[in-house]
Amino acid sequence: ARLKDRPEAVPPLASFFLFQLGFLIYYTFILVLMQRVYGFGTAGIGLFSVVMGVGFMAGSAFCYGPVAGWLKEERKIAIFGHAICGTLLIASALPVPAMGQMALTVLICIANVFGYVSLLTAASSRVPETERGWVLGLSAAGVAVCVFLSGFLTRLLTHLPVESFLVLGGVLVLLAILPALAIRPVAETAPA
Prior knowledge:
Helix content is 74%, strand content 0%.
């Protein structure tokens, strides 16, 4: 299957790419910030990663279901998640105490779940069942590109403050709202 033959899958995939790029920039650079600004060593970075995991687990196990029940559409869930996640990513560039960064990362990871799950659901539900693996493969390839790009940006740390990358990540997540706005309800896009 070709993406041009499944245009209804493009908005959720485009939103997913921008959202993941923004989040992975955050993930890469928040660890640098925690080392440079807050003096976290290996154990501290490990603890920070555990806290992120708690946010992902809370988002998946306790928060996604109620939000999905409230908003009812993948488009609305993704936009809600992007708005929260992007805003909090930008807030992470502010000079807050280390515990504040820990609290922010829990909330960021919870909001991340809203975008991640809803966009993958939206993209895969807009193609025939036999092509859902293809859509998930595109998503995984997009994440791989995002990991590469966010890692590549670390070369700029000698020229720009780490906080600027956190803001960039937040702006990209907020920009992911634009393609999400074009996601139509499933009934209008039922695959042939």
